[in-house]
Design brief:
heterodimer; A: seven-stranded mixed sheet; globular; B: mainly beta; four-stranded antiparallel sheet; 53% strand
């Protein structure tokens, strides 16, 4: 196990609702990244947080937003849910390094179903 | 733009067979990192290996080995004497140093090892 935890495990919402997913990073890690994995596909990068600020964003609309807290835990918020938002949401923690890409360790994911 | 291609969507082998999972990547950066992750049915991505673009040495870890060839932009993964527990989806991923710590994943290869 990586030490990265996510909650909840599963979630069912209806179209138009809002959802908040949570992630606790591995001890010693200060960076959190979020990914969306649709069924049968590879994960897609949503955004990354470092020092409580967004530190990179993938091709996702503004209704996907996030937060990072002083203890390095993070939230992913999605507003105005659409059917296509149904996916496994993965959180990954890592150490921030100017030298290059540090290994990201993933949590178990939150399975979101939008009806 | 960075891209990772895993042409094999699904592979089925019988236990004890050797199997190679292919990964081809595209990047304009000279400094980048390559990763392999395993995703069992539980959903959590398990880190297997990280390689930087300056280290072309092949690596072996138990039954796992990786072949990195910059000339063909490939980073292939071989499992020797496969076991049923190796059944999972395997993802190859790329991170460019100029893109922060964002991972770009391939579409994954589903490996089924039959007893």
């Amino acid at each position: 196990e990586t030490g990265v935890t996510q909650s909840p495990t599963h979630l069912i919402k209806t179209r138009g609702q809002q959802v908040t997913l949570r992630c606790s990073s591995q001890s010693g890690h200060n960076t959190v990244s979020w990914y969306q994995q649709a069924l049968g596909q590879g994960p897609q990068f949503i955004f990354q947080y470092y020092r409580e600020e967004e530190n990179g964003r993938g091709n996702f609309p503004p209704r996907f937003s996030g937060l990072q807290f002083p203890n390095y835990s993070s939230e992913l918020n999605v507003n105005a849910l659409e059917l296509d938002d149904s996916a496994l949401y993965l959180c990954a923690s890592s150490s921030h390094s100017l030298a290059g890409a540090d290994t990201q360790y993933f949590g178990p994911g939150t399975r979101l179903t939008v009806l | 733009a960075q891209k990772v291609t895993q042409a094999q969507t699904e592979i089925s082998v019988v236990e004890k067979e050797d199997v190679t999972l292919d990964c081809v990547y595209e990047t304009r950066d000279t400094t980048y990192y390559l990763f392999w992750y395993k995703q069992p049915p539980s959903g959590e991505l398990v880190f297997l290996i990280r390689r930087n673009s300056f280290d072309e040495q092949n690596e072996i870890s138990g039954r796992y080995s990786w072949n990195f060839q910059k000339s063909t932009s490939s980073f292939n993964f071989t499992i020797t004497a496969s076991q049923v527990v190796d059944s999972a989806v395997y993802f190859c991923a790329l991170s460019e140093i100029n893109a922060g710590n964002m991972l770009t994943f391939g579409g994954g290869t589903r490996l089924m090892v039959k007893p």
